[in-house]
Amino acid sequence: MSTTETANGAAGAGAAVPQVPAGADGQEADLAVTASALGYAPGVLARLDADIAEIIARYPVGHERSALIPMLHLIQSVDGYVSPAGIALCADRLALTRSEVSAVATFYSQFRRHPAGRYHVGVCTNALCAVMGGDEVWQAVADHTGLGSDETSEDGTISLERLECNAACDYAPVVMVNWEFFDRQTPASAVALVEALERGEDVTPTRGPETVPTFRENERLLAGFEDGRAQEGPGAGQPSLQGLGLARSQGWTAPRETSEEDSK
Ligand code: FES
What we know:
The protein has about 260 residues and is α+β, with helices and mostly antiparallel strands. The protein has 2 domains: about 80 residues; about 120 residues, 3-Layer(aba) Sandwich (Glutaredoxin). Helix content is about 45%, strand content about 10%. The protein has a 5-stranded mixed beta sheet. The protein is globular. The chain binds FE2/S2 (inorganic) cluster (FES). The site of FE2/S2 (inorganic) cluster (FES) has 11 residues, from helix 6. FE2/S2 (inorganic) cluster (FES) binds next to helix 6. Its EC number is 1.6.5.11. It comes from Actinomyces lilanjuaniae. It holds the Pfam family 2Fe-2S_thioredx. One of its GO terms (molecular function) is oxidoreductase activity. This is NADH-quinone oxidoreductase subunit NuoE.
């Protein structure tokens, strides 16, 4: 088999990045064995490998391991979380150990360890959002869904997470759905948002695309595969641009970096 996994599960090094089979009997046979070992159906694995090859090709030779983060997003776009099969696949294709892949996947909070819902709802309860009512928003959504943090509804529609700052403090308290912003929420507006998602209705973020893509769709975007929606909806809001406007009105500019040549 082309994977470097041994029978007892230890991962070896030196795996080449396999290409999508061209149809030769030997390649198809290898793919079937690899797919079975990793837990993916051959067709799914072929598509994953084509995408993985495209991701890895974005990085300079010798720095292929930098592809791990977008590869983990790609795994989430297929499995809904960083699955054991996905960890094994990333490890194999990047000649890493599964422990190394898991270490990255568990460090970054965007990577899920359990299947996320079609709509992953994150409520920020960090300092600024908390003082602006984030805890009340969280409690209202948790009460409405009956979910705790990192839990998913039985029908797979909603998963819930307490978030540690969405980098949108100027719009506190903030809720995110599949990483799209819903600014200045109240307990009532957040519950209404979740109710709309539960009814299968499209919802419009305060900033970003006109409707919220599914969790898996946005994960594919985060893997670097454009969805053609980058120009939809408003981008930066007025509170975020306030400092820029003030600087321009006062004629303030950032200090220039001085080189040794300049200081002579
Ligand atoms: S504290 Fe909530 S977005 Fe920063």
